[in-house]
Write a structure and sequence with these properties.
By secondary structure, this protein is an alpha/beta fold. It has two domains: about 160 residues, Cobalamin-binding domain (Rossmann fold, 3-Layer(aba) Sandwich); about 80 residues, no CATH class. It is built from nine helices and eleven strands. The strands form three sheets. The chain has a seven-stranded mixed β-sheet with strand order 2-1-3-4-5-6-7, with helices on both faces. α2 packs across α6 and α3 runs parallel beside α4. The termini are far apart.
């Protein structure tokens, strides 16, 4: 029987109330989409994604999905603004399923690798695709986590931090995000164009930014380095979005898309 992995995108609203449908674009969490797609190729597991932000789910609704799915591993993408939500879900999930392994990742876990290990079992720093696949495979095989780079975890009553994981140099080797695990027709835009549909998607053509602003997650996730996907790889994903998901608006979600003028001009041509 396949093991089960549930990913959770915590709920948060930048602009609650009447501005919500105007300003808040419910963007599919690409990070979780990439990790789920990578796991499909590198781990034997059944995968689900709970996008609590998209569906405006509270902790109780998220816990209902956890109870229904009964995951062996629960991965939560944590931003600083969603720490409270993530902690409450993790605490309640542990009470319901003490044997489930809870993994925090994302910008907050990368910046503060030992924080929240009182409720999470593992914190992943930096890019999550390779680290999460190794975590899953080691756990499923009953092997130690000490050889998994880029993580912090509990050990002998204390905390252990492993060697830093290098960045993925060739982004083209990553599969496209597992968008089929999300309910695509919920992701809509509000631009006032005369369009046949309102389906909306984002892509990233590169990871990272050359600048190191002290308020940005770039330093912790991408180490101030830019890695570009080939434009052919990007265009193949864009064609899939149009043909498979029938989108009418595409957002470029790069950290700094216009930093390389020559590449932007080539992209636009």
């Amino acid at each position: 029987m396949k093991r089960k992995i549930l990913f959770i995108n915590p709920n948060f609203r930048y602009f609650p109330g009447w501005l919500e449908n105007v300003v808040n674009y419910r963007q599919l969490p690409l990070g979780l989409g990439y990790i789920a797609a990578y796991l499909r190729e590198h781990a034997e597991a059944e995968i689900q994604i709970c996008d609590a932000s998209m569906y405006d789910l509270n902790e109780e609704a998220v816990l209902e999905q956890i109870v229904d799915f009964k995951p062996d591993i629960i991965g939560i993408s944590v931003h600083t603004l969603t720490v409270g939500f993530s902690r409450r879900v993790a605490l309640a999930a542990k009470q319901l399923f003490p044997e489930a392994v809870i993994v925090f990742g994302g910008p907050h876990a990368s910046a503060l690798p030992f924080e929240n290990l009182d409720v999470a079992d593992i914190n992943v720093s930096g890019e999550g695709e390779e680290s999460f696949a190794e975590i899953a495979n080691n756990l499923f095989k009953g092997q130690s986590l000490e050889g998994v780079k880029g993580i912090a975890f509990k050990k002998n009553g204390g905390y252990c931090k492993t060697e830093e994981r290098g960045l993925i140099e060739n982004l083209d080797k990553l599969p496209f995000p597992a968008r089929d695990l999300f309910f695509k027709h919920k992701y809509r835009h509000n631009y006032p164009y005369r369009l046949k549909n309102r389906f909306y998607a984002a892509v990233i053509t590169a990871r990272g930014c050359n600048f190191r602003c002290n308020f940005c997650m770039n330093e912790f996730l991408w180490k101030g380095k830019v890695r570009n996907r080939s434009l052919g790889n990007v265009f193949a994903e864009m064609e899939d979005l149009i043909k498979i998901y029938n989108i009418s608006l595409l957002r470029i979600g790069d950290d700094n898309f216009t930093a390389d003028e020559a590449r932007v001009r080539e992209f636009c041509r």
